[in-house]
Design goal:
The protein is an alpha/beta fold and 462 residues long. The chain folds into three domains: 96 residues, no CATH class; 250 residues, Aldolase class I (TIM Barrel); 63 residues, no CATH class. 32% of the residues lie in helices and 13% in strands. It has 16 helices and twelve strands. Helix 13 packs across helix 14. It is globular and about 70 Å long. The termini are far apart.
């Protein structure tokens, strides 16, 4: 009879089946810490206490192009500043960038920096919009029974209580409403208005099939604590509602709020705990796109939410030169899991006005998903989806009925949402082979390409 080692001793490890791993190679664990913001001349004298205060971050966020470009003096060339000035003049989205975000950009190589690409447009990289682009490409307003409430899926609704965010992303699919008017877009008004909210609440309460409400915007980060409570408690009081998701990019662009806005976090915690007592789920859905967006400050903020039992899920957007490589997406997924954020979705970039150079192809998404799956646990592996233009809802990227890589046209059906309809996604024309680019250059050929794609999809639908 063999004797076992005494409890508390460390037995020799069993023979390895895999080669040893150097801890230093596990880069997903290595998050940026220290006063990294002091590399920026404007923040050189800013101490940690100031930088970690959400009020300081909000007060010093840059909200117009001249101020932003002035902040870059001495960091970048005049050529870059002029390129950005022209880029802002063409942009459909308003400007709002936090000091935290500016401090994460590699200003020694701003042209290729993945955070700069998402928030500061350059005229030199701009491409023409796709011919089939619409400003509200997902037709959110067409499925809205009252302003700011989209009811597309049978049991879920999207509630937009406000139209502001802590920062403004160039690629926002809701650029038809979010932020202030720009030279390119006159915005649809969805400002915070409790009278408008009451109409949305009345509709939700009248629909017994609605169980799941996404509270977005804009951004739930910009709701006051009292508003967060009002919306949460009103929805939880409805017998039909089982789940609430507060959608916010805040943790990715201003994690300081979670660390220093105690009233807001306490309000969120109270709604989560009340939901749990009612056996209802209340969670946060956030939006990290690149591993460089996850710092030690992020980790501390996510730890605070985790300690309070608040689930955080992530929805990324697949963007060219930001996260459209296997290595970057693997690192993002692993780093999210490391800070207790569940990777949930990766969206193939919507057809958004003014950012064609950020879009990628469906084929790119398929390739990345194949290579990401298996690199970590399944519950921390995101699903890659196409939010079908025209209001078809989210479809697994690989679930197309037809995909022509020459024309870049993929066709999806959405049988549980709108049976009998066909929804088309269009890859960026500049990424197509020469034959596909030539066909799109002829306006007379475009309807024929679309008709053939729908006919091919129809032949496959059973």
């Amino acid at each position: 009879m063999q004797s076992s080692a005494p409890i508390g001793t460390n037995p020799a490890p069993p023979p390895a089946l895999k080669p040893p791993v150097d801890e230093a190679t596990l880069v997903h664990k290595h998050v940026l810490r220290g006063p990294f913001w002091q590399r920026i001349p404007a923040y050189r004298e800013v101490g940690e206490e100031q930088f970690l205060d959400h009020r300081w971050q909000a007060k010093h966020s840059i909200t117009n192009p001249p101020k932003l470009l002035a902040a870059l003096q001495g960091l970048v060339s005049e050529t870059f500043i002029e390129d950005a000035r022209q880029g802002f003049a063409l942009a459909p989205m308003s400007v709002r960038v936090s000091p935290y975000l500016l401090s994460l950009i590699d200003w020694e190589n701003p042209l290729d920096d993945p955070i700069r690409i998402q928030f500061i447009p350059l005229a030199s990289t701009k491409l023409p919009d796709h011919p089939k682009l619409e400003l509200d490409s997902l037709h959110e307003r067409a499925d809205a029974p009252v302003p700011g409430l989209t009811h597309r899926y049978a049991d879920k609704a999207l509630f937009l209580p406000l139209d502001t965010c802590p920062v403004y992303c160039r690629f926002c699919t809701r650029s038809y409403a979010v932020g202030i008017d720009t030279d390119a877009v006159e915005k649809y008004d969805l400002h915070a208005d409790e009278n408008r909210w009451q109409k949305a609440f009345a509709y939700v309460a009248s629909r017994p099939e609605l169980e799941d409400i996404v509270v977005s915007g804009g951004d739930a980060y910009n709701l006051r604590a009292s508003q967060l409570t009002l919306i949460g408690e009103t929805l939880l009081a409805m017998p039909n509602i089982r789940r609430i998701r507060y959608a916010t990019k805040g943790p990715a662009v201003m994690p300081q709020k979670i660390l220093s806005d105690h009233e807001w976090v306490d309000a969120l915690t109270a709604v989560v705990e009340k939901g749990r007592k009612l056996h209802k789920e209340v969670v946060i859905h956030t939006h990290f796109n690149h591993p460089n967006e996850i710092t030690g400050i992020t980790q501390d903020a996510m730890n605070r939410l985790f300690e309070r039992g608040i689930t955080v899920r992530n929805q990324s957007v697949l963007q060219r030169r930001v996260n459209d490589s296997v290595a970057t997406m693997r690192l993002l997924v692993k780093r999210l899991g490391h800070v207790n954020v569940h990777p949930y979705y990766v969206y193939v970039h919507d057809l958004v006005k003014g950012v064609e150079e950020l879009r990628t192809s469906v084929d790119t998404a398929l390739t990345i998903e194949k290579n990401v799956r298996g690199s970590t646990a399944g519950f921390n592996t995101p699903t890659f989806v196409v939010d079908a233009p025209g209001g078809g809802g989210k479809r697994d990227a690989h679930s197309f009925e037809h995909y022509d890589r020459e024309t870049g046209i993929s066709v999806y059906t959405s049988r549980a949402v709108k049976p009998g309809h066909f929804y088309l996604y269009f890859d960026p024309i500049d990424l197509l082979p020469a034959a596909g680019r030539a066909r799109w250059s002829d306006p007379r050929e475009r309807p024929a390409m679309i008709d053939r794609a729908i006919a091919a999809a129809r032949a496959r639908v059973r």
